[in-house]
Amino acid sequence: MSQSPAPDRQLEIYDTTLRDGTQSEGVNVSLADKLAIAKALDEFGVHYIEGGWPGSNPKDEAFFKEVRSLGLTTSQISAFGSTRRARISAEEDPNLRKLVECGADVCCIFGKTWDFHVTEALRIGLPDNLAMISDSVAFLRQATGKPVFYDAEHFFDGYKANPSYALDTLRSAHQAGAQRLILCDTNGGSLTHEVVSAIRAVRQALPDAVLGIHVHNDGGLAVANTLAAIEEGCLQVQGTINGIGERCGNVDLTSVIANCELKMGYRCLPEGRLSGLTSLANLVWERINMRGPKNQPFVGKAAFAHKGGIHVSAIQRNAGTYEHIAPEQVGNERRVLISELSGRSNIQAKLSNRYPKLSDSAVIAAILEEIQDRENCGYTYEAADASFDLVVRRHVGAYQPAFKLHYFRVHGIGTAGDQVDLVESVVKVEVGGVSRLCAAEGNGPVDALSAALGSALSADYAALVGLRLIDYKVRVVDSADGTAARVRVLIDFMFEGRRFGTVGVHENIIEASWLALVDGVDFAVNLVREQSMVVV
Known about the structure:
The protein is of the alpha/beta class. It is about 40% helix and about 20% strand. The chain is elongated, with a radius of gyration of 29 Å. The two termini are about 55 Å apart.
């Protein structure tokens, strides 16, 4: 059961996906992406959205103008920047002026906490750095009349190197009017006991300061360090959705929020918003054009996936036996995987929705035996739900093939030259006693075969025009056999808004591709028949 947070156990969620997160390798978002993510974060209920660094690039400047038109109802927009430069006043600093002009609800600036950075990176005296922090915070407070947060960069490294100076930097920001002091593990290498010890020292030195935590994951401890910091009294949590960020990433807010709300008794979001966690995570992955890890805690596709037969048997009786929370609490879902490790309970659980009346033990045993035999030959059904469904249909008498194959041929493979030649394919099939022979060209044998098969079937199955091949993967099953080894082909399709996968295995990669391709067509045609869609 989830704990009910006490009134004083409210946390502030400060999302920096649009700034710190975009520093992740391979991440490049458009202005439209940033605005879409900001809208989703607002609907989810985070308190602050850090939009970027005004003045650093035209996209961030445009964001602060355009975000005003989104009509956000929950989140405040924060602008990020640094303390003033050395040897000029805060009023003269162009970056601070940009922060004032952007019109954000909050300004968050970072400054040097580690004496090593002050003397080696800035090459100024330690007192000069304190003045830069104080001047910058005071200027922004006076010029905007809005809250100023202070990110103490490299705080934990700085505290280990020179505790008294690290605390002095916080005092400078606090006395100048910073409403939040954010303790940053910028290099991400601090251990949890070090984080706890440093925070206790800060709370003793500045008992009236409101603290936040901002950590990176270079030591693999970002979530643990953040949760420990919260327990030590940090009110604000800075991080990114899905943990994207420079190097090994920032702390993953999806894990922090779920743990805090479901297990630690803290309130992070407005009531009822936590169930949108998985959808938000997926939206961010989609917008940054990346596929998240399947085993991402709470929101990953495999977070509540069960493969072992003993596990599946247990969760059918009581899900709490192998699940730490109910997947619905974070908007995820339970999945039962089928493999050679499966037992009868896996088959029954997998089929419970589609074939609820299937109780024939002999049929279930036969399905399990075929799946195990096929997996022994190199098949895998974890990502090939459509191929698995066709196996079941054959055993329960619900399968009707879409066509009968006479033959297929592929021509043009192996041509060379600077210009890529199209591959030709010929497919001859029979539907309802009528034979059809069609040829097509494509960018490779699979594309050509797909086009030829689609053309051959179009007269009989008009709905197949909406079947799209969206992903294709090949893997050698047994490399010990060299070029004669079996290959496994996995194909993902999209049809009528539904995504499904198929698998084919053969020593010939084209034959393996054909098997997976045909399963996709067969599955789509059977869906059409099931749903009583019009088939010409």
